[in-house]
Design goal:
By secondary structure, this protein is of the alpha/beta class. It has 2 domains: about 160 residues, 3-Layer(aba) Sandwich (Rossmann fold); about 140 residues, Rossmann fold (3-Layer(aba) Sandwich), CATH 3.40.50.2020. About 30% of the residues lie in helices and about 25% in strands. The chain has 8 helices and 14 strands. The protein has a 7-stranded mixed sheet with strand order 10-9-8-11-12-13-14, sandwiched between helices. Helix 1 crosses helix 8.
């Protein structure tokens, strides 16, 4: 792969992942200054020539989401004004995705607003992983390459003992995703009905599926406060589950989430490094890397190849 016109940059959201992607591609991480003025405004300077280059800017919208979004917008604008040939926003975790419709009076559709701002900034295409809602792809008037973390998670999950495993969705809305995992692992499936009482509190009210003496694997796209997962785990153990694990694409954990996980109600959380995940003593987290997945996506976009092959799950 000729790399004289491939340029990869990152903001401050997840530089470790960006470096892993560059290591996979055998390409250097581009030099850029991304810092804040004393009043909090973001300053960006691209520190190398990118005229006519194919530029990829890696930046998940992890906490603090607004700060990292502004870094991304300003980096895209800087690259556009520096005469980059094409700019791809590589967003391993796309924030504001939960605000994808008007489910109450007088509320915004913020995921559409973020899409508009990305395009207005100068992005020519977007590469992302496991959007919270599929319809967000339609919010863009530019190409969106939507990858899935499932091949990375499957590679890990295929090594666990499935003889006594039941796969559960922690809510009814996740049944389609859970069904796909259950089919590949060839295990029974169930689901939990929940009731959200606040932004941070969830109550699991009933379940359908086999639990007595079983190991349970919960599947979801993201967790922040771990409220849904821990409420589900508590209900499952009350109904006889021996062990409860969870696999999620995005571990966007805050302090409340780490506190809940340290309680031990959930025996293991398996997630990816689409956002930075801290490893803490007494918190059972396994972090898998999506660097190869995103690196291969970048390579195929750069070489104008299809990314469809990245959806294949090998080894099943």
């Amino acid at each position: 792969m000729s790399q004289n016109k491939l340029k990869i940059f990152c903001g401050n959201a997840n530089p470790k992942l960006a470096q892993e992607i560059c290591d996979y591609l055998g390409a250097p991480l581009g030099a850029a200054t991304v810092e804040s003025f004393p009043d909090g405004e973001t300053f960006v300077r691209i520190d190398e020539n990118i005229r006519g280059a194919d530029v990829f800017i890696i930046q998940p919208t992890s906490n603090p989401a607004n700060q990292h979004l502004m870094e991304l917008f300003i980096m895209i604008d800087a690259a556009r004004r520096a005469s980059a040939k094409r700019i791809t926003a590589v967003i391993p975790f796309y924030g504001y995705a939960r605000q994808d419709r008007k489910d109450q009076p007088r509320v915004p559709i913020t995921s559409k607003l973020v899409a508009n701002l990305l395009v207005s900034s100068g992005a020519n295409r977007v590469l992302t992983v496991d959007l919270h809602a599929q319809q967000i792809q339609g919010f863009f008037d530019i190409p969106v390459d939507h990858l899935y973390a499932s091949p990375v998670l499957f590679k890990y999950l295929k090594n666990i003992d499935t003889d006594n495993l039941t796969l559960f969705s922690p809510d009814v809305g996740g049944m389609k995703m859970a069904s796909a995992y259950a089919g590949l692992l060839n295990v029974p499936i169930g689901f939990i009905a929940k009731r959200r009482t606040s932004a941070e509190t969830v109550e699991a009210v009933s379940l359908v599926g086999e639990t007595e003496g079983r190991d349970i694997l919960l599947i979801d796209d993201m967790t922040e406060t771990a409220g849904t997962l821990c409420a589900a785990a508590e209900l499952l153990k009350k109904n006889g589950a021996a062990r409860v694990m969870a696999a999620v694409s995005h571990g966007v954990l805050n302090e409340r989430g780490y506190e809940r996980l340290s309680s031990g109600i959930l025996d293991q959380l398996i997630t990816t490094n689409t956002t930075p995940v801290q490893q803490r003593e007494g918190v059972p987290i396994t972090v898998l890397s999506v660097a190869e997945l995103l690196g291969e996506g970048i390579r195929r976009i750069y070489d104008n190849e299809s990314v469809t092959g990245l959806f294949d799950v090998k080894g099943f």
